[in-house]
């Protein structure tokens, strides 16, 4: 069984199925969906065949509008088609989407759901883009994890052929699209079993062709347009059932079962959250923790958002529910409330479920964190005599006071799961090395594994933080690590720029890439770093990674060195097994470049182990000034809570001191400002 | 007072205010909004100044996406901007709309709301396009008549400056955009009084400028995007109140008062329809008629759809209401129901109005008729023990059986209103002449006047039907005439192609442009036309318009001749007054081309009167065959209900015989198929 697992991100998992099920793939790159198109393009150039043994035609258009138009045209020619996009790219597809749906044409667009540029542009994830398409007549299927994205990609390609309704398959940009996880990928055989050749044939016979001429896509006048628009009704009535059939067939093939609405929690819950997407993972963790204290709570996960099946919704919701919180990962200013809330109200109304108090809230815009602590606050709000309505969660809204308070200290992290955080420079190889570590641990050692990488939109040259979890139990923690067992700093210069040790849990291991050896380094540390190491009783290690890399002919590339250190001291695997695995991985990677290269890398691993030193930590921080310029920042700067190197001059304008400076030092989330934190 | 009235269509009324209030107008033509841009372009080329004495810069871009981008840019430069669009054009503006709203920038886009191309393209009117923008953060203000469009255009330009929220001002494509009506146009003084110069100044000071540099439109990361997105809340909370203030100020200036939600009907209504747009006129007529029979019913008209003010909605809705029908002029396949319905459900929920049964229905897609008879059917549905839900009205849905039956014979036409229908060839001058007649009657004679023109999308060369109403009472009949006092056929060849006399009421006048004189014409008529004339006791007139036109040097242009006939026999004005007015109008139109031209046209009027003949109608239709090829169509064709010239061969495929042929003869609406008709 172990070998059927792979570790990859949702974009790659989705692209594999989309590629296998398509003949024409029209693409245009937009973050965070780009890698789906890039991989497809690469595979086509490598002549990788699809399910039918042909090589998909991958064509990059001039914009997403062109990609949608190319797909529309190819579909009318009888080809199986797909595309990938997000955000403004998806908005440009809307005109063609109406036509594709109006003409009852099967296709799947895979969306790494992303914010829309409003007061500012953002490349990060939420549901604003897909919600802007909910009126187009497309089915909308939402994945909440990498595994689900892998599975629902196939469900969507199978169901669209059955239903003749085009599908938007979406998942949270970055949180899911870029999360690397250990999953089971549908096999070629399973994919083949899901795609009904008769339906493929039916699609082909509907193609426009001079051999059997029909007219389609005409101009219609008031006499017939309305009637024509209503003729699609039977297809929408039938669609949810066909999706459930696809889920069921898939369940028989894979043992992974899904329903249109999946309920998680107490069968006799009185309070329930309704939501969709990656935040369901965090909510499930909160539910498990709170149910252990006797709370009757649950989560209703929306899988098929469109067509919305009211009876399936009502059947999935426990009859005992008295209070419901509907959480939308979008914002629609000027609306009474956000779309999922409006739909759930209507679903309750239409299924005769009166007597349920319903409140709506917004969360997670632009990849803002949603944690079990926030889910708990939402459940607590439902317990209030007068639950707050139209709330936000995850920010502190001190302008219109919409936000719920939450206790950021509430943690549901599995003690059996290793949590590691790495601070690297953008494009310095840290992320690549971490992905390789996940592969080793997930695919070779058979542990569950998760990697999430916090880029900022400045990309190359800025800080990239890797959040890795490993363990024997399934990992549902769809949020950043705040209490790590292991913190690595790959760049010494970060020490007085970011308060990275606030992420270290008590007794954690701290690995520092340092020019200074174990005897010298302590005096070079900023005083707050010294204080954290002492207070948290951290196991402190240093390595001069640059020196080791250079000594083994790797120039400035420190990633293998740092990865070896991680395996050597993190205890995620037994040390000997870990080192064996890393050498095996090196062999696999470099075999084609000859034995010498493999052995040079092996030597680097051995050299790393010899140069990795534990630092003996003194009982108290140093008091001497001047060793590190940041140790004694004048208090005048004042606005940055952690006494780091002042990111802005003390005489900067107030906004820059109070807001910009916090963003620069990585405190823009205001984690430390939220009550209870 | 009389002189403050003008007769024009909504597009022109709106364009006048938009032009007066703008400095940059970026345009791209799309039906049915094009004339707003065309007029602006023309006025700018004529150096017509705006409110501040400058000439707006009107620039045609490469697409609607470019127009929206140009507006966005000009707004950031501090200019007052507008644009006009519809349908797919509006969809292309969505990405910029998010940014304009996100940056809290005042502007107004005027939308002649139109269908979106789905199973077929359509140039006609419904709310699919504006509803596709309801999530963008724009205010949405809906006009239901030409007068309201004239007024709300100004309200929108005034309110956007107060609110800093951009406005979509929309009205029904064709039904309102192209309806010519006698209205009061806001004067320059009123416009000036509505636009607050301080707000204009505030907009200018927010411009991006090197003189006071600020940064705007940045890229934001997860740390701050969500918070930034929420900072707009106070503006949305305040907006409805600011719109009501603008309504109130406008009411003081003009005596035309509006509210965010306007209620019409019984103060103690138990059944109410909620809707927006032009169909409100037809519904008001139905309410008046049905209240006379003791029914307690009403209409809640939505003016400001976004931001949706729940408390204003609740305050406007009588407390006695037990059953509500929400009518949406859009369709969103896969949604539980359409957007206005979802919003009204939420508004009731949030205002604690439980115990109200709410059903939703769709109507009027792509300018499908909505008549008082249909409004009555909706009220009747609300009286049923189990009201139908998710219904359609206005079509007969024999596929999924969503449609409500209605009694097409139910008429609320005002007996004091003259109703005239003209059949002309597209671009033959009939529409222009009718617009001129409306001007004479509305502006000179001081009667209320309405003109609606049924084009088909084939434009030039196809039949254009003009529906004109005139009378002393206000005209709210936002639907086609089905019982005319006057029917004119400007092309003899139409007689055996369309059943035009089914629109003639008993005792109506029928004017025919005929090569054949009064003694000869009868025998040339298709037998069904003869039968209709006899059965309905029509007053039948003929004129050889081509001969008269040629005799007075007007070549083939028959419009002045036919217009004179209309005034001479329709009794809309006393005959002598009518002829005097038409001559006055000729003088006005042709004065600049010299006295000779004026007198030649006057002579044509006199010549027309001499050549206009009443036909004495025999007691029975002729039975002789062969005079007209269509009189004796073999019954084999069978599918066309009126025995006209067969539009398709008898051996055509079944679909062509049953569907296409009905569309060709103008029966595609299936008027005669709907129960009760």
**Uncertain stretches of 5 or more adjacent residues of chain A:** 625-642, 672-677
Arrangement of strands in the largest sheet of chain A: 1-8-17-18-16-19-20-21-22
Determine the fraction of residues in helical runs of chain A and give it as a percent range: 25-40%
**How many distinct beta strands of chain A?**
22
- The best one-word shape of chain A is globular
**Biggest interface, CB < 8 A:** A-B, 100 and 99 residues
Q: What structural class results from the helix and strand content of chain A? A: alpha/beta
The residue-averaged pLDDT of chain A reads: 92
Count of DSSP H/I helices of chain A: 22
How large, in whole angstroms, is the Cα Rg of chain A? 26 Å
- Strand % of chain A is 15-25%
Largest sheet of chain A: 9 strands, mixed
Q: How would you describe what is shown here?
A:
The structure is a homodimer of 677-residue chains. By secondary structure, the first copy, chain A, is of the alpha/beta class. Chain A is built from 22 helices and 22 strands. The first copy, chain A, starts with a strand and ends in a 13-residue tail after the last helix. The C terminus of chain A is likely disordered.
């Amino acid at each position: 069984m172990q070998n059927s697992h792979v570790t990859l991100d949702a974009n790659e998992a989705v692209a594999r199925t989309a590629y296998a099920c398509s003949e024409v793939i029209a693409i245009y790159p937009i973050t965070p969906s780009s890698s789906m198109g890039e991989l497809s393009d690469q595979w086509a150039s490598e002549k990788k065949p699809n399910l039918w043994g042909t090589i998909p035609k991958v064509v990059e258009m001039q914009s997403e509008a062109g990609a949608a138009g190319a797909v529309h045209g190819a579909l009318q020619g009888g080809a199986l088609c797909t595309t990938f996009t997000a955000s403004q790219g998806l908005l440009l597809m809307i005109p063609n989407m109406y036509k594709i749906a109006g003409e009852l044409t099967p296709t799947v667009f895979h969306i790494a759901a992303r914010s829309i540029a409003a007061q500012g542009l953002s490349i990060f994830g939420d549901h604003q883009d897909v919600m802007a398409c909910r009126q187009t007549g497309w089915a909308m299927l939402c994945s909440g994890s990498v595994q689900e994205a892998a599975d629902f990609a196939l469900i969507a390609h199978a169901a669209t052929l059955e239903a003749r309704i085009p599908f938007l398959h979406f998942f949270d940009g970055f949180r899911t699209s870029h999360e690397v996880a250990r999953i089971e990928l549908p096999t070629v055989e399973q994919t083949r079993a899901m795609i009904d050749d008769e339906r493929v044939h039916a699609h082909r016979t509907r193609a426009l062709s001079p051999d059997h001429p029909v007219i389609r896509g005409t101009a219609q006048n008031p006499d017939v347009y309305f009637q024509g628009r209503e003729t699609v009704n039977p297809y929408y009535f039938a669609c949810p059932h066909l999706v459930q059939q696809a889920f069921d067939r898939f369940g028989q093939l894979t043992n992974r079962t899904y329903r249109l609405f999946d309920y998680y929690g107490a069968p006799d819950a009185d309070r329930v959250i309704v939501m969709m997407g990656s935040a369901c993972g965090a909510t499930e963790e909160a539910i498990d923790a709170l149910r252990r204290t006797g709370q009757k709570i649950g989560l209703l996960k929306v899988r098929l958002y469109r067509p919305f099946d009211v009876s399936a919704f009502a059947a999935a919701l426990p009859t005992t529910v008295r209070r419901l919180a509907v959480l939308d990962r979008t914002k629609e200013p000027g609306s009474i409330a956000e779309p999922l809330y409006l739909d759930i109200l209507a679903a309750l109304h239409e299924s005769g479920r009166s007597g349920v108090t319903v409140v709506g809230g917004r969360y997670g815009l632009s990849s803002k964190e949603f944690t079990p602590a926030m889910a708990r606050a939402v459940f607590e709000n439902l317990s209030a005599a007068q639950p707050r309505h139209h709330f936000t969660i995850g920010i502190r809204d001190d302008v219109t006071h919409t936000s719920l308070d939450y206790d950021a200290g509430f943690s549901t992290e599995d003690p059996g799961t290793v949590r590691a955080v790495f601070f690297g420079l953008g494009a310095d190889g840290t992320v690549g090395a971490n992905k390789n570590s996940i592969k080793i641990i997930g695919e070779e050692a058979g542990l569950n594994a998760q990697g999430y990488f916090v880029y900022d939109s400045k990309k190359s040259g800025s800080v990239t933080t890797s959040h890795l979890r490993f363990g024997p139990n399934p990992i549902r923690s769809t949020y950043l690590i705040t209490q790590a067992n292991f913190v690595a700093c790959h760049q010494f210069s970060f020490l007085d720029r970011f308060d990275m040790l606030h992420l270290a849990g008590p007794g954690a291991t701290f690995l520092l890439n340092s020019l200074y050896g174990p005897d010298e380094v302590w005096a070079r540390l900023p005083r707050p770093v010294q204080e954290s190491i002492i207070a948290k009783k951290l196991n402190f290690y240093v390595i001069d990674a640059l020196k080791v890399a250079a000594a083994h002919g790797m120039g400035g590339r420190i990633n293998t060195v740092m990865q070896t250190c991680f395996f050597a001291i993190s205890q995620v695997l037994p040390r000997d097994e870990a080192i064996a695995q890393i050498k095996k991985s090196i062999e696999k990677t470099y075999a084609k470049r000859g034995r010498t290269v493999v052995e040079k890398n092996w030597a680097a691993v051995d050299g790393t182990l010899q140069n990795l030193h534990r630092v003996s930590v003194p009982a108290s921080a140093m008091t001497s000034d001047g060793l590190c310029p940041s140790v004694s920042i004048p208090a005048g700067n004042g606005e940055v809570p952690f006494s780091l190197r002042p990111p802005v001059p003390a005489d900067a304008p107030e906004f820059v001191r109070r807001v910009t400076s916090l963003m620069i030092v990585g405190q823009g989330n205001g984690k430390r400002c939220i009550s209870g934190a």
